[in-house]
Amino acid sequence: MRRLFLIALLSVAPSLAQAQCGGSWSAFLTDIRAELRAAGLSAREVDGFLAGARQDPKVLRADRAQGVFQKNFLDFAGAVISQNRMVNGARNAKRYAATFDRIERDYGVSRGVLLAFWALETDYGAVQGDFNTRNALLTLAHDCRRPELFRPQVIAAAELYRRGDFDPQRTTGAWAGEIGQVQMLPDDILRNGVDGDGDGHVRLKASASDALMSGAKMLRDLGWRPGEAWMQEIILPASLDWAKTGLETELSTSEWVAMGVKAREGTLARGMRGSVLLPMGRKGPAFMAYPNFRILFEWNKSFVYVTSAAYFATRLEGAARVQSGAPDRGLSPAQIKLLQTKLAKMGYDVGKIDGILGAKTRPAVQAAQMRLGLPADGWPTKSLLDRL
């Protein structure tokens, strides 16, 4: 049936892309009803799924207010990686050891990575969100910011309902429609949901085994390379060419070693390629980011979130606390927004002008630093802003 559902979903994809956002809520629900029927749900199933559906203004407020990602790496990581989460991580690693053993055998995903996301997403299942998932998805599908992302998620949630794994009235989660202990969207659950505890259902809210197995399968399907490292703290020579740092440059570890790059603990992974990651510039923490690190951006697009989660995963597997260094003072969100505006006018692609030093703004900063003859470490300062 999953195959038939996906075929049906593909058949209505053009209408998903062409459907207009906004407008009358009742007209929107009429369109959704037609799409659900085209996807293979019966009239009775559609009625059951949409019964009592309403817009949720709190979802839109949350969507517009994601200021947490404006923090720098040390502040964000310091806020989310608590001693309590470290202790509970060790406790859960022991409690679900059999599940993690199976995950590492079947999918090659390290337990530290899954523990880190489990902690950051829901505090190991304790805080899964109280937004009605059906209403959140419908609200975001009706909204004009990202309807092309959320209309298919509505269809996927309806299919989960048809299978008996989603209650439109009672299923709750994050404001953006993610469900369960590792916060997965309905389509991700359809594609990668795993019955980890063997009860015949995929229930990511109640079952930690289901959630962890499903998260691991999703990472593997996204391209996770089994058994490989994702991040490692490094020590850099003062003579390093800073223009070679950043995720846009990937070299073999032997090439980095030849330039004087060393692992803080142990050695760099042999036979692999990686990028030197400087989340707060050349005077702050430094990491070697391996190919698996890039896969984590498919879970969450935020640079500071992904970097913090990857670092947290290394800590959960025994790595020492990061050396914070003495990074130059960064910019405020308002200053970063001004910086993005200036860079965009100069022709650089900074992505959205939002006051967040994200994955697109950083290489733009680095390019501008190179143009001005400054150390090109991708970390913007007041002096760079003034020079621009």
Automatic annotation (TrEMBL):
Residues 334-388 form the Peptidoglycan binding-like domain. Residues 1-19 form the signal peptide. The keyword Ligase does not apply. InterPro entries: Lysozyme-like_dom_sf, MltB-like, MltB_2, Peptidoglycan-bd-like, PGBD-like_sf, PGBDSf, SLT_2. It comes from the Bacteria. The keyword Nucleus does not apply. It holds the Pfam family PG_binding_1. Residues 27-313 form the Transglycosylase SLT domain. Keywords: Signal. NCBIfam families: MltB_2. This is Lytic transglycosylase. It comes from Thioclava marina.
